[in-house]
Amino acid sequence: MSDRTLTKASPASPTAPDPSSSRHVDAGDEGYSKDLKSRHINMIAIGGAIGTGLFLGAGGRLADAGPSLAIAYAVCGIFAFFVVRALGELVLYRPSSGAFVSYAREFMGEKGAYTAGWLYFLNWSTTTVADITAAAVFAQYWSAFSDIPQWILALIALTIVLTANLISVKYFGEMEFWFSIVKVGALTLFMLIGIYLVATSHKVGDHTPGLSTITDNGGIFPAGMLPMLLVIQGVVFAYASVELCGVAAGETENPEKIMPKAINSIMWRVGIFYVGSVVLLALLLPYSAYGAKQSPFVTVFEHLGIPGAAGIMNLVVLTAALSSLNSGLYSTGRILRSMAMTGSAPKFTARMNKGKVPYGGVLFTAAFGIAGVVLNKFMPGEAFEIVLNLASLGILGTWGMVMICSLYFWRRSKAGLVERPSYRLPWAPYTQIVTLGFLVTVLVLMFCDGGVGRWTVSLVPVIAAALVIGWFCIRKRVARIAAARG
């Protein structure tokens, strides 16, 4: 039996059907509440674009690439916007909690959905480890926690966020709303303070901020262009959650009104918060003052010497790590349920509790967080970088699947099989093709980086082989479920 059984309209049909009557129906969308409001979606979109990759990862990348990191953030931000805009067009066509997995199922069949789903799981299962690692590192900043082993703090962070995530989607939405308020408010305050310090040439420690901080320390490319290119895979990780609003669309009323506004706002938020923050960091202190072990924002406030300011900023970046962890458990639970309903994920990941939360998928993802706790016990110093590179593979795969789905959708619209909404990815199909080329380039750069990056890319054939073996193990079950659904 074909793995496209669940799709009502086949592209091989001799007569193009009415697009409105041929819309795909996904069993994985059943059973959810619609409790997410417009304010939740808007702030989830912000929270997805501001996370651990900026608050913690920017420090080490500034130390490696210098001020040119702002250019890397700008370039990656453009492609991140293309990805989320393509997903937004698909969401307006058919909102689904299965998001790109559901669209892969419609346009590429169950093999496509299976591949998209497990690549996304690779992304978030490893990002979960990165987030609990970041939370533990941030917590150890305070003397009260400095003597507590990193793995214990990581376990506490995972337990707290997991418990909150299992209650209900409304509770998740409220948590993410306030997490995002804290992140945006703190970054806005930092930028206002930074602009004031630069404008008044107020000393930051022993340094006078301004353009001279860049020009006197090697310029925009203090170590050449190569370091900027090599940190791009880490910058891609910083944008890992931009697709979250597409997943959340399946649990909100009137997504056709809410989603365009939320997605369009991502572009200017990226410009202000990511690029703007990195530019200010480069103007305030020499790039060599930053490091991978501490948030660059905390570094600035420590040099300012304002009592308690660094501690408050550290609390903010801790909030960002918990927010990212919260989002990962939420989205992966929904994706796994969409897969489980068609047989391509373990059956128990389809289970929902009374709060209409797919707790099976959430717990399955959290179980991999336990592996992160073990990693923090035996390799506390390398845990973040190791999982960051693994997560980057999942992100590249997920973004690639989104753009491939978008290409299939564009092709079907040209054939008259579906109707594109008025909210569209501009310059299709060239945008999808260029973005896919960019993702392949990032993979090549990871390999050229050597060390952990090269080791990570060498895992691509292993991951591909695991996906192929996994598919042959489940394909009969997938076909049987498809046949039962008719």
Automatic annotation (TrEMBL):
Q: Where in the cell is it found?
A: Cell membrane
Q: Which keywords label this protein? A: Amino-acid transport, Cell membrane, Membrane, Transmembrane, Transmembrane helix, Transport
Task: Give start and end of each Amino acid permease/ SLC12A domain.
Answer: 40-477
Q: Enumerate the InterPro entries for this protein.
A: AA-permease/SLC12A_dom, Amino_acid_permease_CS
Q: Membrane-crossing residues?
A: 41-58, 70-92, 113-142, 148-169, 181-199, 219-245, 266-289, 309-336, 357-375, 387-410, 430-447, 453-474
Q: Which family does it belong to?
A: Belongs to the amino acid-polyamine-organocation (APC) superfamily. Amino acid transporter (AAT) (TC 2.A.3.1) family.
- Name the UniProt record assigns to this protein: L-asparagine permease
The record lists the organism as: Streptomyces venezuelae
